[in-house]
Automatic annotation (TrEMBL):
It comes from the Eukaryota. InterPro entries: OSBP_sf, Oxysterol-bd. GO terms for cellular component: cytosol; membrane. GO terms for molecular function: sterol binding. It comes from Ceratopteris richardii (Triangle waterfern). Transmembrane segments: none annotated. Signal peptide: none annotated. This is Oxysterol-binding protein. Belongs to the OSBP family. The lineage of its organism: Eukaryota, Viridiplantae, Streptophyta, Embryophyta, Tracheophyta.
């Protein structure tokens, strides 16, 4: 999967290129996410490279999903780096707190730790300044999600393969907190995509994406229109206009 998105108002750009490799462990499936995430804060002339933790899907006794493992966030221009550890529930998911995150932010040039990170990605995360011993709120999941509104999508002029058309039912389920509907819609989309891929192979057709090019082997896709404005996608959420393109 590859994605490129921009926020021209805040001067933010992001690019994802992921490939998930699952491993089965009896009562759970653990997906290792290979690839790259880039975040550009153009107003500050900063670029961040981000790795993804593993996705854990518990099948029983309590079904659910969690992020586990490590994630690294690096900024070359500021010489700052964050190392994060995601922990899941122990004891087959029956006890403990889900979503726990801990870590540190340090200066690579001096190897000195500046902040300690602690909290839960599905609740709140705080950062403690080790010099002043003061803690500040870094992220509040409830505040970030409480104002989500139903998606406003105008279908006029959209291609049938446009992400907003293909994934609309999944996004609606997420916004409405209907996780079962979102999962079922995602499954149906994936099955249709598999059928299309089989048909292309039978017909001897080679599919080429319009907006991404493969680099560094088969696992990394890159947006091929750098320097050009992303064509507007009619998606409105939280009064924020977001422009996206997706493979």
């Amino acid at each position: 999967m590859a994605l490129y998105a921009t926020d021209d108002v805040r001067k933010i750009r992001t690019q994802w290129s992921h490939k998930a490799v699952p491993r089965f462990y009896g009562n759970k499936v653990e997906g290792t996410i290979y690839g790259k995430r880039m975040l550009w804060l153009d107003a500050h002339h900063e670029a961040y490279e981000i790795t993804c933790p593993k996705l854990l899907i518990r099948l029983f006794p309590v079904p659910g999903t969690e992020w586990v493992g490590t994630s690294t966030i690096k900024c070359v221009s500021t010489k700052l780096e964050a190392n994060l550890l995601f922990k899941g529930k122990p004891l087959f998911g029956l006890r403990g707190t889900a979503g726990h995150v801990s870590g540190k932010i340090y200066d690579v040039s001096t190897s000195s730790t500046l902040y300690e990170i602690n909290g839960a990605w599905n609740k709140t995360i705080t950062a403690k300044n080790l010099k002043t011993e003061e803690s500040s709120l870094l992220y509040d999941a409830q505040a970030a999600l409480s104002n989500l509104q139903p998606l406003v999508v105008q279908n006029k002029g959209l291609d049938a393969s446009e992400s907003l058309v293909v994934w609309r039912s999944v996004m609606s389920g997420i916004v409405n907190w209907d996780w079962e509907a979102a999962r079922q819609a995602k499954h149906e989309i994936e099955e249709r995509q598999r059928d299309l891929e089989k048909k292309r192979k039978m017909d001897g057709k080679l599919w080429r994406p319009r907006h991404f090019v493969q680099v560094d082997g088969e696992d990394h896709w890159q947006w091929c229109h750098f320097g050009e404005a992303v064509s507007p996608a009619p998606l409105v959420m939280q009064s924020c206009y977001v422009e996206t393109e997706k493979v």
